[in-house]
Amino acid sequence: MNKFYILLIILISTIGANAQFKGGNTLGDYGINGGSQPAPGLYASTFYYNYQTDKVLNSDGDQVIALPSDPGEIGVNAFAGILWWVTDFKILGGNYGVMGTFAFSNAALDIPVFGLNETTNMAFSDMYIQPINLGWNTKKLDYTAGLGLTMPTGRYEDGADDNVGYGMWSFEGFGGATFYFDEKKSWSFAAIAFYEMHSKKKDSDIRVGDILSLEGAFGKAFMEGAMNFGLAYYAQWKITKDNVNGYTFPLTPLDKVDKHKVYAIGPEATVPIIINKKLIALINARYLWEFGARSISQGNTLSITATFPLSVGQ
């Protein structure tokens, strides 16, 4: 079966099953202490992300089509470099910070292709920045809030099967908190929410609906917070329908499909790398299983992050 025929089957089946366009938010990248801003300083991170799935579910939760089962041929792989600068400058009492993410991906998980059928070459993807990142700290709670922006820097062509970007601007506001159950801040629960809105996709009349994403974890800290183990989660709901302004496929108009939702849960661990009593890096890993998906794919998410504190407290 050739590539075009596989894509055509998935396109028709998912549209008829009420599948949805994806937004720019990366699910599974926040967990333990997800509602906290780090101490003032400069941090550099390397981030690996992998999403695997073999099914698309309709609005009733029934599987519509089984995608190819070879793990080497489905899913999304992405690598990113992250810079996060937290300053001592205060805005509304919170420390001001800024973050930038520069990613490379082999696919974009989106209709009509889903990026699940054939591995494409790794290429520069959409860039994400947080020009405003604020953080507050109290004895029991940490807070964070700000604004994020996803820029369409990744390769995108309307209808192409090798896109690594989404071809649109995404604007999001976010806010979250980490609650500590004890004075030593060893037990915590974190939650951070993102509300994203989008421009029209490049060279089309498609505008992806607003999306609400919630991420976080319940965790236990050791070694004064350098080591953590816990249970991470995420959830996502499309709040408004995709607007396609009359853009239709052979079976079902996209502007009449149901809004998607998906949930996930799984373990998380953070382990410090210490040399000569100096913290070199923090290695974090999460693996989450999705469930309760409607009008979207359902699979598994793996993320691994190595964070290097470059100038903490300076």
Structural overview:
The protein is mainly beta. The protein contains one helix and 14 strands; from the N terminus they run H-E-E-E-E-E-E-E-E-E-E-E-E-E-E. Strands 1-3-4-6-7-8-9-10-11-12-13-14 form a twelve-stranded antiparallel barrel. A hairpin with a 2-residue loop joins strand 3 and strand 4. The model is unreliable at 1-19, 69-73, 111-118 and 247-256 (pLDDT under 50).
Blueprint of the fold:
Elements: H1 3-16, E1 41-57, E2 63-66, E3 76-91, E4 94-105, E5 123-124, E6 127-137, E7 141-151, E8 170-180, E9 187-198, E10 211-222, E11 227-238, E12 261-275, E13 278-294, E14 296-309
Antiparallel strand pairs: 1-2, 1-3, 1-14, 3-4, 4-5, 4-6, 6-7, 7-8, 8-9, 9-10, 10-11, 11-12, 12-13, 13-14
Characteristic terms for this protein:
314 residues, mainly beta, Porin, twelve-stranded antiparallel β-barrel, 14 strands, disordered N terminus
Named CATH topology: Porin
- Overall residue-averaged pLDDT value: 82
Total helix count?
Answer: 1
Going by CATH, what is the homologous superfamily? monomeric porin ompg
Concise synopsis of the structure shown:
The chain has one helix spanning 3-16; strands at 41-57, 63-66, 76-91, 94-105, 123-124, 127-137, 141-151, 170-180, 187-198, 211-222, 227-238, 261-275, 278-294, 296-309.
